[in-house]
Amino acid sequence: MNSTALPLPAWIAIGAVLAYLIGSLSFAVIVSRVFGLNDPRTYGSGNPGATNVLRSGNKAAAVLTLVFDALKGYVPVALAVASGWPAAVVAAIGLGAFIGHLWPVFFKFEGGKGVATAAGVLLGFDPALGGLVLLVWIGMAAVFRYSSLAALTASLAAPALQVWLNGPSLMTVAVAVMSALLIWRHAPNIRKLIAGQESKIGQTA
C-alpha cells in the first residue's frame, strides 16, 4: 500500500466499506435460492446462516453456505495481510466484513449471527488463532450438539487466545468487538438454552 497517496484514516474507511459490501453477501439466502430452498429467514431460527440452512435437510446447501460465509471474512483480511497493510486497516477490514454479515445492505439489513464469517476473519488475522478458536467450537459442538453454545464458548475464548498468542494489540480490540457482537446476537439462543428449548445441530425445521 502506498501510504503517501492517502492518509491512514482514509485507507481504514475504504477498507472497512469495501469489506462491509463483501460481507453483505448473504450466502445462506443466495445458496438457498440456487438450490430452490425456502428463504432461511422464514423457518427454524430465522437466522440466515449455515446451521439454519442445514435444518432445510439439504446438507450440500449448508456446507456451501458455511464455506462462502467463512471465505467472505477470510479473503479480504488475508489479502490485506499479504499486502503488508497496517494493522489498523487489517482490523477495519475484518470488522467491516463481519458487520456486513450481521447487517447486510443487500438483504434489508437482515443478517446472520456471524459465526462462520468471524471464523474466516480470525483465520485471516492469524491462522493459529483461527485454528484454536475453531477447535473450541468443534469440541463444544461435538460434545453438546448445540451450535449456539459452541459459538458462545468460542466467542469468549477468542480474545483471551488472541492476547495469549500475540499480546494486546489493535487485533485484540477487533476480536473483542466481534466476540461481544456475537454474544449479543445470540441473546435469543441464550434464553432458549436456559429454558431447554434450543434446537440441536442437524435438527430439521
Please outline what is shown here:
The chain is an all-alpha fold and 205 residues long.
Number of helices: 10
Secondary structural class? mainly alpha
Helix content: 55-70%
Note the run of SSEs as H and E: HHHHHHHHHH
- Give the domain tally: 1
Strand content: under 5%
Secondary structure blueprint with pairings:
Layout: H1 8-23, H2 27-34, H3 50-54, H4 59-82, H5 87-102, H6 115-125, H7 127-144, H8 147-166, H9 170-185, H10 187-195
Structure commentary:
This protein is mainly alpha-helical and 205 residues long. The chain has one domain. It starts with 7 loop residues before the first helix and ends in a 10-residue tail after the last helix. The mean pLDDT is 94.
Key descriptive features of the protein:
single chain; 205 residues; mainly alpha; 70% helix
